[in-house]
Amino acid sequence: MGFALAEAALKRGGEVVVVAGTTTVSPPAGVRIVKALSAEEMAQAVAQESAHASVFIGAAAIADYRPAQKAAQKIKKSEESITLTLERTPDVLSQVAASRTNGMLVIGFAAETENVVENAREKLRNKKLDAIIANDVTRADSGFDAATNAITIITRDNDPVELPAMSKSEAADRILDVIRSLRSVS
Questions:
Q1: Does CATH place domain 2-61+91-185 in 3.40.50.10300?
Q2: Contacts (Cβ under 8 Å, ≥6 apart) of 85
């Protein structure tokens, strides 16, 4: 979805920078790519790249947790099970929203598996976003490895707009239409 948004923004004349983790999709031509291999690298790159942005769209699915300790060597198979302690990774979207300047719009994504709209609304409020794009990733026609996406666009001031499954490029255009309308209000 991130590359579809980048391509749609580029077609509309935007200057587009994508901070990308590991991906199986090729980026669109004309988009500047900044690679980040960990949540920490992504947080640093996003902080640097978003400093002068007018719109930030957080479409990356960054892991919320990571192992608290790295093993110095291979963990040998010696027990039936092991216990891993996990710790939170940086919340990149919240960091961008908290440090925004110059009226930057901050748009997030909520990949949900239950109570999709309710959980997305909560994320919108808690992270102080301008809009959030919710999608039910349990659906076969929506989410990470699908060619289509069925989304619900939620803003702070309007009723949610639920869209049927459509190509990711069509969904990107609909999202950018909402961003343009938010821009004209602010």
A1: yes
A2: 67, 68, 69
The angle subtended at Cα 143 by Cα 27 and Cα 94, nearest 5°, is: 80
* Neighbour count for residue 149 (Cβ, 10 Å): 26
- State the average pLDDT for the chain: 91
Distance CA(136)–CA(144), nearest Å, equals 10
User: What is the distance, to the nearest Å, from the Cα of residue 175 to the centroid of all Cα atoms in its chain?
Assistant: 13
pLDDT in tens, 134-169: 998 888 887 777 888 899 999 988 889 999 999 999
With CA atoms as reference, report the closest residue to 172 among 73, 180, 79: 180
Name the residue among 15, 13, 57, 44 with its Cα closest to residue 172: 57
**Which pair of tokens denotes residue 176?**
């950018």
The rounded radius of gyration (Å) of the Cα atoms in the chain is 18
Tokens of 129: 């976003």
